[in-house]
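Homework help board

Subject: predicted structure for assignment chain

Our instructor gave us this sequence and asked us to write out the predicted structure in token form, then describe one feature. I got the tokens but I'm not sure how to describe them. Can anyone check?
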Amino acid sequence: MALSDLFSRRRKDDPEADGGATKAPGHPTKALKNFLATLSTHPQPTLLDIGPVVGHNVTFFGERLGCKFQVEELSKDIDRHTREDKLPDLPDFLSRRFPQADDSFDGILCWDLFDYLDKASALALAKQLARVLRPGGMLFALFNATEAPPATKTYTRFVVVDEGTIQHRSYAGARGKQKPLPNRDIQRMFEPLRITDQFLLKTNTREVLFRK
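My token output:
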């Protein structure tokens, strides 16, 4: 997706998507600094964001890394399968979702999308992300460490303020967070990637960095 198309679509879909986030609370991040440091060693790295996408982040990573930025907004795919009562089809859909060739990206931003997936869907997505990540590349993901109330159906836009702070802005979705994945399951489903950093934050969120 071209950046001009990304910004125009974001303004059309949600004109306050970035502006409203300036009022959102800021939360510390420990893993983002290491993610940025690794990608900065790659000349003009390629970065994949699986969403929800935020225009401010495109600017932040572009200015910091001089990277090529691509977006695949999976939250919309999850919502569509939920609304159409087709969640059993989601694992197969995710296994075919990415047309990119093997070893296409130096970095991948997952944010907390895995929290919204059942185990089979999470495995299908993890396999595809491991496939498109280049050797030496990094994948950044957040995992909820505590079970969310079942009635809560919201996604979060994560707005990077700086390498140590991320703002969280919630918005309504069709599907709530699922039961947290055990750490051993996370390690296994991302193989052959290996965990290089893992932090449990005060927000009961685990930040995990994987490397290929």
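Reply (TA_rk): Your tokens look well-formed. For the description, you could write something like this. Residues 1-22 have pLDDT under 50 and may be disordered. That's the kind of observation they're looking for.
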